[in-house]
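Notes, p. 3: input format for complexes.
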Amino acid sequence: MDKRLLTIQDISCVGQCSLTVALPLISACGIEAGILPSSVLSNHTAGFSGWTFCDLTDQMPLILDRWKKENIDFDAFYTGYVSKTQIPHILDIMNQVARPGALRIIDPVLGDNGKLYAGFDDEFPNEMKKLVNGADVILPNITEACLLLGIPYVGSDYDQAFIEKTLKELLALGAKNVVLTGVSFEEGKIGVACYDGNKIEYYFNEYIGGPQHGTGDIFSSVFSGALLRGKSILEAAAIAADFIVETIKVSIDDKDHWYGVKFEKAIPYLVSRF
Ligand code: PXL
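Output follows (274 residues plus PXL):
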């Protein structure tokens, strides 16, 4: 049977993040994507002066009920931007409509650059730990790692020993694998650190700067698609990281396009990796 993934995150109607990137990119990886929108916003919350917000928590148990009646189930779950009250519903969904061995891929979307995203409160990181516990893979950035561990944000002031301690502490929250994004030990290089409880592996690219909004969601979407295509965690992370470089290259010269990256133009590259 072909693999089917369910992704749970918001629809930011405009902004090249969350479901508007997850659906096309998982599809481009050749994997069927079901979606469960957690909320609908006019646009994302990073850089615009305001936004509408329609919470869809009430729909979650109704949709789950329908799926159970239709025997609809999934090989993997990939969660992104959700809210505190949705976490028990998401756990329910992952328990009740999972095919045997279904993967839980959790991007603990909380914030970036040392700050929680607008609209999230200080208690949210603790709630997010309920999704982290039992995850097959978690995909935090360094801000999210610090928030989950309740430690001060380190900015770029860290060394390899800090990253390796952080990976171990994140794994101890109950995840089987950690893929930490945005890791850099030397100027001009950026990448990911992967830990499976046994070995720590790194993958780096050239750091080219440029716009970065939505690249976390792009990373997690491509990672999820590649993992379901049978790639290893390190291979999936490398494909996702390489794809981000391509999306930034096609966006970097357009200074007016500040709110996201033009991932659409790099889709042929992504397809060529499979
Ligand atoms: O890219 C993460 C994200 C997802 N969804 C919404 C956001 C953000 C980050 O700002 O605002 C609505």
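The chain has a mean pLDDT of 97.
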